[in-house]
């Protein structure tokens, strides 16, 4: 639950601007390589992640969240191996690279020069808190500054 509103975060992205908002909330989420799944029969790419709650006031917390992308034609991986499901990835950003409208690529960038590229027919993504919250002793750092 959002510590200010008492509700779990639920976001939907249908365009590049929406995706930027979703990316900001998912920034610094951590996940295991094995917590990603491409479902080609329904053209969906799913991630289970531990999102840092940038909106919690004074309480550094992570929350279990789900993120999925629809209308995915193809998935490409870079910098990590699927046969190492326990390796941990740190999500830095999610961006849309337009192609022939409304298609394009959604690029998930992880630390350590790792990434996932999704070829999509259009932007449709959802991020939702689905599980418990727990204290996080340190906020993620960016450029020498402590955020949150």
Overview of the molecule:
It is a single chain. By secondary structure, the protein is mainly beta. It has one domain (10-137). Helix content is 7%, strand content 51%. The chain contains one helix and twelve strands; from the N terminus they run βαβββββββββββ. The protein has one helix spanning 16-26, and strands at 10-13, 30-32, 36-39, 44-52, 61-69, 72-78, 88-98, 104-110, 114-120, 125-135, 141-142, 145-146. A five-stranded antiparallel β-sheet has the order 1-10-5-4-3, with helices on one face. It has a five-stranded antiparallel β-sheet with strand order 2-7-8-9-6. A hairpin with a 2-residue loop joins strand 11 (141-142) and strand 12 (145-146). The chain is globular and about 45 Å long. Residues 1-5 and 144-148 have low confidence and may be disordered.
Please write out the topology.
Elements: E1 10-13, H1 16-26, E2 30-32, E3 36-39, E4 44-52, E5 61-69, E6 72-78, E7 88-98, E8 104-110, E9 114-120, E10 125-135, E11 141-142, E12 145-146
Antiparallel strand pairs: 1-10, 2-7, 3-4, 4-5, 5-10, 6-9, 7-8, 8-9, 11-12
| Secondary structure tally: strands | 12
State which percent range the strand residues make up: over 45%
Largest sheet: 5 strands, antiparallel
The string of secondary-structure elements, in order, is EHEEEEEEEEEEE
> Which structural class best describes the helix and strand composition?
mainly beta
Oligomer: single chain
Return the domain count: 1
**Morphology call:** globular
Average residue pLDDT: 90
Biggest sheet: strand arrangement: 1-10-5-4-3
Q: Quickly count the helices.
A: 1
User: Poorly predicted ranges (pLDDT <50, ≥5 residues)?
Assistant: 1-5, 144-148
> Helix coverage percent of residues?
under 10%
> What is the distance, rounded to the nearest whole angstrom, between the alpha carbons of the first and last residues?
17 Å
Rg, nearest Å: 15 Å
